[in-house]
Amino acid sequence: MGGLPDKGGIALIIHTLIYRFADSVADRDRERFFTELRAAAYKSGLVKDFGYGAHYLLPVDEQSRGMTGNAIAQFACADLPTLRKFSELPVVHDLLARWRSKVDYEAAYANHDVLLTAGTTGGNPMHHTEHTVTVDAPVDVVWPVLVDVEGYARIFPPTQQVTILEESPEHQIARLVVDVNGVIQTWVSRRDIDVQRKVIGYRQLEHAPMMGHMGGEWRALALGEDRTQLVLTHDFKPREPVDGKVAGTYTYEEADEMIKAAVERNSVADLGAVKIEAERLAAGERAA
After folding, report:
1. What tens digit of pLDDT does each residue of 91-123 get?
2. How far is it, in rounded angstroms, from Cα 62 to Cα 46?
3. Cα 6 vs. chain centroid, distance in angstroms?
4. I need a surface site. Which of 25, 134, 162, 234 has the fewest CB within 10 A?
């Protein structure tokens, strides 16, 4: 079973997972589970694409035999040996064991060729980037800067406005208005906040015009009492072209290069902005 070609002419093997989460599992925990699984997949360098979503229940499902899922995930690898290598990674086993101990769910899966060949499977790869900076401030000073999404309009120059649409101690949904290369754009992002691990997983729910997928993580890792390693990751790809154009203007290759350049530029700028703000706050605390 070697995989059928995708639209780019590359053979793929697909891993499909059907989940049934117990009614007691909160939506925010389900979202965080998939966010962490997606991050592990892309960070491995073995997974070419990853997606997840809800099952749409039909009336007939109530009478069906066997397990009817309420969520589904799917990812693609280059071939079966690559899929096997990913499945045997300790980080994957650790992640699943940790979540098995936290939430109640059942899962079924299948490994298979690309089955849809009528242009529905989206053959363009996802990009994964990781940027980091060391902050001369305690993690307990850095972390509130990351959580204060409304403050991004103050410390990130391109961000014009942030409006929180929904919020709990463990998640935020916010609309951002951002100057992107001189053009004002807006999108809605969900942020899942893991206070214990000091990780914020984010993904766009309503995309910017050129974006097909955008997600990633902020991570704050303590380096002793007075220093923090700050990590920012992105998983992204452009929107699929319509009539050969993305957002009605650019070829896929042009949009891809523009987004990659913006991610590189903004990652460095955003990390630098958090570093400056956290070190300013830490200096103020020391002076007091």
Report:
1. 999 999 999 999 999 999 999 887 765 444 455
2. 37
3. 23
4. 134
